[in-house]
Amino acid sequence: MSSFDVSFLEPYNKWLVGTASGKVIVYNRKDFNAFHQELFDEHVPTRFNYMDTFNLLDYVDNGFTESKRSNTLDHFYSVSKRSLVKNEVEDGNMTTGVFCSGDLTLHLTFIAKAPYIFIRNFELHQVVKRIGLSNLPLQLAVAPTTTFLYVLQADGVLKMVDQVNIENASEVGTIHEEARVLRLCPNGRYVLTGGSKGDVCIWHVFRR
């Protein structure tokens, strides 16, 4: 597992898992209600419904086309069988996914070897938008109260993009010799970036 995110913005809880083999998987936690959140109990394991698998490795290698699925459950088992037969765990196949803050059916994701951010509707099982980058993505964060996403690229550039209107974007070059980490404060006003030598920068986000 290369990334993990949780959505609490609805009466039921979804988990988003990014893998090191080029896949992003969405699960829906059963018997979960935001108004009466059950506690984890080792004697009563949490149950999940499988919702969606996005194979970014195939999607990127096949020119941004997905093979059509005939049945969601059959698709899940075919992906599981492929993971058992093929060892596709590589640094370039590492995936990262985060839920969108403004739409409960969307998540943002990327695979380390491709300079793109993909917006996917996991209920319709399709990519609805592809955002091109100038370099490979390292880290991804979503603003909690706006439609903006933040991407830290391998060349040290911090990019801010509006998910609704991707032409509305801005970027800044960080001072890091080798950028590593991106974090966003809870109110979305400040962005933190970190480098390989322990250097940390705090960026103030403001509107012109």
What does this structure look like?
The chain has a domain of 130 residues. The chain contains two helices and 15 strands. Strands 1-2-3-4 form a four-stranded antiparallel sheet. It has 208 residues and is mostly beta strands. The mean pLDDT is 84.
Silhouette: globular
- Based on helices, strands and strand pairing, what is the structural class? mainly beta
Biggest sheet strand line-up: 1-2-3-4
| Mean pLDDT metric | 84
Major sheet attributes = 4 strands, antiparallel
Low-confidence stretches: none
**Level of helix content?**
under 10%
> What value does the Rg take, in angstroms?
18 Å
Number of strands: 15
Q: Roughly what fraction of the amino acids lie in strands?
A: 35-45%
Number of helices: 2
Distance between the termini: 39 Å
Give the H and E element order: EEEEHHEEEEEEEEEEE
Q: How is the secondary structure organized here?
A:
Layout (H helix, E strand, L loop, with lengths): L2 E5 L6 E5 L4 E7 L18 E8 H6 L10 H14 L9 E5 L6 E6 L4 E6 L4 E7 L4 E6 L5 E6 L3 E6 L6 E5 L5 E6 L5 E6 L4 E5 L4
Antiparallel strand pairs: 1-2, 2-3, 3-4, 5-6, 6-7, 7-8, 9-10, 10-11, 11-12, 13-14, 14-15
